[in-house]
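User: Could you check the structure of this?
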Amino acid sequence: MSYISLVLMEVISPNFLLLTVGAVLQRKLRFPLRPIANLITYCFMPAAVFLNIYQVEFDYPG
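Assistant: Sure, the predicted structure tokens are below.
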């Protein structure tokens, strides 16, 4: 049961918080979504994937 609460608090809750903040800001400010989606898709996601691959630590047996 502790793993479920850990995942809920450290993974799912921050994502729902960001989703809620984004929805509220979109309703109030009416951002143009297409340029933001393109920026995320072509700049931020590849950078995040590269950094995650770069920072991984391998444990070689032997």
